[in-house]
Amino acid sequence: MKPTSPFLLRLVLATICFSAISAAQALKPVQLPPPQTTGGRPLMEVLKDRKSTREFGSGTLSPQTLSNLLWAAFGINRPDGRRTAPSAMNWQEISIYVATPAGVYVYDAKANVLEPVLAGDFRAATGTQSFVKEAAVNLVYVSDLSKTEGAASSEAEMYTAADVGFIAQNVYLYCASEGLATVVRAGIDKPALAKTLNLLANQRIILAQSVGYRKK
Fold it and tell me: What b-and-e string marks burial along 171-190, b requiring 16 or more CB atoms within 10 Å of the CB?
């Protein structure tokens, strides 16, 4: 068997890079429908049914369900731009990355838009457990430490972790109300995922959360 020539190797690498760039360019922003902010089940019933589930059925979430989910998680609920989950000093330092079968997006709460980050199905890359690739979406909670002005490093880490906890609980409550399955996860290869998402040095992956339909 003849060894691969340097020219052929460069050609193959160039083809792969071109394909990756083309795929990324093909991923467009997704304008979500306005979230439905009325209805739902009574709070006490939702709290009773809140639980973690690690088995997911097939199916994708509709744009409306995804809009409702992300608004419940960390959407804007007041005219001054404040959010559905508490944020220390109103830093609003947490970004939600949304891994779907089509690609990875980041949630823009103000515009209610999913901004494209990476084309392709990277759901499996968001966690070390085998079930994560089966969930309809995986939410990755990323803090931006550049927004935590005036806080010591240890304080910033504590505040951002607490803020993510509030967001994750909002997701739990929404899923319990709508009959969806979810589980928050710490089992993540954070260095690898940060590289995949092209995160900046001041960005930190805190947790991830799988959301999908319940397995019948």
Answer: bbbbbbbbebbbbbbeebee
Global pTM value: 0.88
Please, which residues have CB within 8 angstroms of residue 64's CB and are 6 or more apart in sequence? 33, 36
User: Is 139:209 a contact under the CB 8 Å cutoff?
Assistant: yes
The C-alpha atoms of residue 138 and residue 9 are separated, in whole angstroms, by 35
Tell me the domains of the chain and their CATH numbers: 29-213 (3.40.109.10)
Residue 215, number of CB atoms within 10 A of its CB:
13
The string of DSSP codes covering 119-186 is ES--GGGG-SSGGGGGSSEEEEEEEEGGG-TT--HHHHHHHHHHHHHHHHHHHHHHHHHHTEEEEEE-
Q: What is the pLDDT along the chain (216 residues), one digit of tens a residue?
A: 445 455 554 544 444 444 445 445 689 999 999 999 999 999 999 999 999 999 999 999 999 999 999 999 999 999 999 999 999 999 999 999 999 999 999 999 999 999 999 999 999 999 999 999 999 999 999 999 999 988 998 899 999 999 999 999 999 999 999 999 999 999 999 999 999 999 999 999 999 999 999 998
Distance between CA atoms of 7 and 9, rounded to whole angstroms?
A: 5
List the one residue out of 61, 49, 18, 39 whose CA is nearest residue 213: 61
CB 36 within 8 A of CB 68: yes
